[in-house]
Amino acid sequence: MSSILTNTSAMVALQTLKGINADLSKTQNEISTGKSVATAKDNASIWAISKVMESDVKGFKAISESLSLGQSTVAVARNASETVTELLTEIKGKVVAAQEENVDRAKIQTDIVALRDQINSIVGAAQFNGLNLLNGTEDVNVLSSLDRASDGTVTASNITVARQDLTTSAGTYGSGTSLSANATASAAAVVNTANSETLTIAADADVSGDSFSVTVGGSTVSFNAGDITGDQDAAALAINNAINALGLEGVSASVSTNVVTISSTRAFEDVSLTALKNGAGTGVTLSATDIGERAETITLSDSANVNDGDGYQVTVGSDTFTYVAGPGENMEDVARGLKAAVDAGGLTDITTAVAQNSSGQWQLKVDNDGSSLGFSVVGAAGGTASGGLFGLGGIDVTTNSGADAALGNIETLIQTSIDASASFGSDQGRIDTQSDFVSKLMDSLKAGIGSLVDADMEEASARLQALQVQQQLGIQSLSIANQAPQSILSLFR
What we know:
The chain is an alpha+beta fold. It has helices spanning 8-33, 44-97, 105-125, 232-245, 331-344, 400-453, 457-483; strands spanning 127-128, 131-132, 140-148, 154-161, 183-185, 189-190, 195-201, 212-216, 219-223, 251-256, 259-264, 271-277, 284-286, 290-291, 296-300, 311-316, 319-324, 350-356, 362-368, 373-380.
């Protein structure tokens, strides 16, 4: 049946043409935008995923900029600390030269002061965008990543860069919790009294047939059989005279009947003793196998922790010397800091050393070659840390004691600077690695987004040509379908 009211063929042709035109429009949009999913209506889930990933890319771009800023800041600090290390090494050369007594120490001291001032200038200028990692103790966080969990939660990650204080500031002693229990003074005063041990020769009416061998601090005096005539008192006197004749620095002997008293005023050095009679120990008795070093000590706890701001004060006579620990320091650092403080005080006749005792506890040793001085130590928390190069300003090689003290202290300062450089180098390497990773991660994210939403241009081009042909055929088909009712006119002719 034919109808002039309903043209089914035309309706089918029209719907087909509409579908072709819709596909053609979509393909043209893909070609013009380059995306197969340009809006949420194209594919809501894929569009949502791509937008989340695009936001991550924006975030990582900001992170890359943060890493670049951190990288530059750490690089400035590393270069500065390396330069400080070189200057400290130059100072060490000056200090070593000052160990000779026939040099112009005043001129050497002038050079040291100039180098010290240069170090202070470098430390003060080592900033990038106002941030100086060589001044202060607070850590600095560099934004390094955004971590997205499976539930969509986003958290920021940081690379923590520890400041390395290379200033010469003395710090501020705190008023917090008492730490006095962590430090013990060996005596209430530092005196110059010699330490002594005795050598006793047993009663013997005739020693002419005996041989004797006595070693003091590595130097030996000996008597063969027949060298000494008389009794034990004569032997003691001969040994006494022979020890004094050695001329050992800081070592002397005195005799009372058959007892020889051997004394030592050597600071920070034990003097070993051995004694033999006829090749054996029989007939001679030593009160000890060595004479202990002359020094009083501050013994620091081997179990207590050292926190940022923990301060200790040593009093010698009427002078008080302070060191306040920074983050990451231990009792060795405290002992060496106190040594630097005492050395910088310029006390006449006072010398210092740092060592560990047999129990592993760190000790500050103080020797006095003059009149007796009071000696005590206290500690308290809550202070402001001393600078890492604390004590540099107190180096003075114009005197023998100052030159000796400077030699030990400069080694500590050089090691501090080396540690700072190594720390910054490690941090810079980590930031470089993270920066490289973030750059590659952004590329991967962009590639992932592209694989989700970008159009396949080869496919779209081929599809466009096919759809254009289909469109032309659809138009032809619609035209034919629209002409079909005209055949009915022939029936009315």
